Amino acid sequence: MDTLQRTLVLSGIKHCGKSTLGAALARRYGVPFLDTDSELENAFFMKSGERLSTREIFRRLGEDGFRRFEAEVVASLARSGAEVRVIALGGGVPANPFLARDVLRELGFTVYLEIRFELAFERVLRNGLPPFLAGAADPFAEFCRLNRARERAYLECADLVFPIDRELPADENARLLVARIEQEFDGK
Q1: Strand-pair category, 109-115 with 160-164
Q2: 59, 71, 81, 143 - which has most CB atoms within 10 Å?
Q3: How many beta carbons lie within 10 A of that of residue 175, not counting itself?
Q4: Is the per-residue pLDDT at 186 higher than 70?
Q5: What distance in Å separates the CA atoms of residue 66 and residue 96, rounded to the nearest whole number?
Q6: Confidence of residue 178 (pLDDT cuts 50, 70, 90)
Q7: Residue among 67, 109, 73 nearest 92 (CA)
Q8: What angle do CA 137, 141, 143 make, to 5 degrees?
Q9: 131 CB-side CA count, 13 A
Q10: Which DSSP symbol is given to 162?
């Protein structure tokens, strides 16, 4: 499979590799790459005139306001979707209560990057704790609790589950994922 026939959507917990792997897959297939966090930042700038990071937008809007805004941004991506591309979803998108489930199906073929929590949390620590973990008495326990709660949503929207159980270069994970996707499409 040298070209993508449908948009490829990556979902999973914070720091599972959606953006890094997504960029590698977009290069591999020669298609555009979108990250919903970047799209959210751009939409916020267009609406408010302020250039803020996703973390800052979350702090500014609060969780409900942030999730409503995130749902608007993702729904607009689904409506604009004739172009084949690779999209990395923010970690909370599949569990967003303001986003209709059919919107995720409209986006494209969804791959859940199922990473070990310990591995993902090591990556989180490298970048600093996000607001939803910073105030927790035990940030790792809270990270696990939150992601276990989201896991059902990830599985419900997934067309394919791709386990990540160790650190590999993005291009190696991209090669392995492409092989799994090709296997999935050959079987249909």
Answers
A1: parallel
A2: 143
A3: 14
A4: no
A5: 10
A6: confident
A7: 67
A8: 105
A9: 12
A10: E
Closest by Cα among 82, 85, 87, 143 to 113: 87
Predicted pLDDT at 188: 46
Q: What pTM was computed for the model?
A: 0.86
Rounded-to-integer distance, Cα 165 and Cα 188, Å:
27
**Does residue 35 contact residue 45 with C-beta atoms inside 8 Å?**
no
Is a pLDDT exceeding 50 seen at residue 117? yes
What confidence tier does 185 reach under pLDDT thresholds 50, 70, 90?
A: low
Looking at residue 187, what is its pLDDT?
47
Burial classification of residue 159, based on how many CB atoms lie within 10 Å of its CB (0-12 exposed, 13-18 middle, 19 or more buried): middle
**In the CATH scheme, what architecture does the domain 8-186 have?**
3-Layer(aba) Sandwich (3.40)
Interatomic CA distance for residues 1 and 109, integer angstroms = 15
Chain segment 90-104, per-residue pLDDT in tens? 989 999 999 998 999
Separation CA 88–CA 35 (nearest Å):
5
Structure tokens at 182: 């090709």
Identify the helix (H) or strand (E) that includes residue 136: none
Q: What is the mean pLDDT of residues 19-42?
A: 92
The domain ranges of the chain are: 8-186
